Amino acid sequence: MKAEDNRGQRRSLAEQLNELFAMARWTDASGRQREYSTAEAARAITSDPSHSVTLSKSYLAMLRNGSHTNPTLSVLEGLAKFFDDHRPAGTASITVQSLVAQHESEDELLLRRLADHQVRAIAMRAGEMTPTMRRQLLKMIAVFDQDDTPGPGAEA
């Protein structure tokens, strides 16, 4: 199963799942944000009383590494519910359709990208800039996009 990213390139279910794992967080006893492990997610999905999906950590690991690519609808429903329940506030809902969609809307893409703290910080700073400063920033970004090869003396 593949979905397209914002450039029209196909993203595998494994890539999407790994992005969702990177986004979903829980807070430990010390107040630190932690990523769910494959085993924790499989346990949570299996123990959720709202559906009858049983998901082993090994099967979820195979979905994440791409060795299994065609889960049942019930497995997709369990995954979608887990990640929707654990998504950051203000991000787009996670549904079965979003897991298997051929594309995502600009609003969904924006919300997903704004879930990243650094992207949100950049956007907030840009919102405080004058239109002239934003144009200059966009020109600098365009230069970075064109020149992705390290210059002389640059560290790799």
Structure characteristics:
single chain; 156 residues; mainly alpha; two-stranded antiparallel ribbon; 8 helices; 4 strands; elongated
Textual characterization of the structure:
The chain is mainly alpha-helical and 156 residues long. The strands form two sheets. The chain has a two-stranded antiparallel sheet with strand order 1-2. Strands 3-4 form a two-stranded antiparallel ribbon. Strand 1 and strand 2 form a beta hairpin. Helix 2 packs across helix 3 and helix 2 crosses helix 4.
Query: Care to count the β-strands?
Result: 4
The helix-and-strand class reads: mainly alpha
Low-confidence sequence ranges:
4-8
Which outline best applies?
A: elongated
Assess the beta-strand content as a share of residues. 5-15%
Q: How are the SSEs placed, and which strands pair?
A:
Layout: E1 2-4, E2 10-12, H1 13-23, E3 25-27, E4 33-35, H2 38-47, H3 57-65, H4 73-85, H5 96-100, H6 106-114, H7 117-127, H8 131-146
Antiparallel strand pairs: 1-2, 3-4
Helix pairs in contact: 2-3, 2-4
Brief overview:
The protein is mainly alpha-helical and 156 residues long.
